[in-house]
Amino acid sequence: MTETNLSPVIQEMLKSGFYPHPVQEPIKLIQTHVSYVLLTGDYAYKVKKAVNFGFLNYSTLELREHFCRQELAMNKRGAAEIYLEVLPIAQKEQNFELGGSGEAVEYTLKMCQFPQDNLLINLFHQGKLTEEMVEDLGRLVAQFHSKCPTNEYILSFGEVAKVRQAFDENYEQTAKYIGIAQTQEQFDGTKEFTDNFFATKQELLTNRIKNRWIRECHGDLHLGNICLWHDKILLFDCIEFNEPFRFVDVMYDVAFGVMNFLVGNRPDLANVYLNTYLEESGDWEGLQVLPLYVSRQAYVRGKITSFLLDDPGVPVADKEQAKVTASQYYKMALDCTKLGQGSLVMMSGVSGSGKSTVAKKVARLSNAIHIRSDAVRKHLAGVPLSERGGDELYSPEMTERTYDRLLELGILLASAGYGVILDAKYDRQSLRKPVIAAAQKHHLPLQILHCSAPEEILRDRLNSRTGDVSDATANLLTSQLASAESFTEEEKVFVKTLDTTQDLAAQLN
């Protein structure tokens, strides 16, 4: 669209004299199908287009003002540093005035402008997104979700019929791309998975409602809507215009990031993000619905990319690239539904022996779910992971509850097709025996990874430990070493012993 085809308001906003602050010229205009965004240097101004797509309606001035204010309020949750205020644009004769007192003819959302290189999707593509940053993101998203509101109305959006509606629409809108951007086999396979899920796993979705995991979430939490600004990760541009898009299962939100990492061929970072989120939130049961939502997010990306094939204004070369990109998303939408054979790994060893370090490495290598007893214990007691627990947290009764919960989650998730690592001391036969029996009962492959190190190393590690969910200290070591029970002959067939003072990669291989 040329400048002369733009509305008089947008033409005026492209002039530096329109703003009451210095601007960086030329002012840059970015358009989406629903918004204009003007970049002035320190600030960005967003104006909603007068459009009505059914799922989104900005067709009147009143609606545009309402959704500007809604967007400001909702994004204050995850990016208060960016979202500043909603300003009227008033008209006096032929002149437009930002924040003027005359009659408002438009509204704009004023935001702080940040470099596009700071978007996590760009940091990811540049190879600058570190494992530590992804862990920070996982914790942040879990903390964001813990504050997301819910009520009976919001929970109703988790009902099967409402969840299913968007899936069915996706298939209806993409059938014409069979043989062009996806194969018949892919279309049928993905649709069969979701049809079967909705037909046979209604109880799972009902439990998500019962446990209040349907919340007013972000709704579009892909890496392009997350930025690093002033050394802080911010979640911005959440869905303000459509309730069904944001009144969703928290796993719907998580699935976006998982999908981004998988499409970018970094399953290790997907594993980092997911395991960090799960440990912080305690929502390990959510893994039962995660494949449904990862498939959905990938399929939608395939659909949106496919739409470019119908646009006469898109050059032929761009259409060919869109076809390739869409086919990658459609393939992933099917691939991520196939979990395969589940398995169990039981860690073993006293505090400081390196169990969690090994478990984390194994999880990254094998895309396994890593469940730490320290986190499970605190979730059971309602103690924040960052806080130290009292003596009651380590009573025999709480220890029994913790190991019971570990086993429950292990069998649940391994039976669903996940590799699961149970990270606890498992230093006594009475703790190991139920896991071995359950694995055999459910025909699940089992391995015990026993971590060891000299006592002086154990003490040094515990004395230098900071910022960890574990509360274990070196003064517990003597009693732990004394009470640890050696493996029986029956157990030894499952055991691999690791010296954690030596090269772990070689031992794990």
UniProtKB/TrEMBL annotation:
Pathway: Carbohydrate acid metabolism. It is an enzyme of class 2 (transferase). It comes from the Bacteria. Gene3D superfamilies: 3.90.1200.10, P-loop containing nucleotide triphosphate hydrolases. Pfam families: AAA_33 (PF13671). InterPro entries: Cell-binding_unc_protein (IPR052732), Kinase-like_dom_sf (IPR011009), P-loop_NTPase (IPR027417), Therm_gnt_kin (IPR006001). The keyword Transmembrane helix does not apply. CDD domains: GntK. Keywords: ATP-binding, Kinase, Nucleotide-binding, Transferase. The keyword Kinase applies. Its EC number is 2.7.1.12. It catalyses: D-gluconate + ATP = 6-phospho-D-gluconate + ADP + H(+). Belongs to the gluconokinase GntK/GntV family. This is gluconokinase.
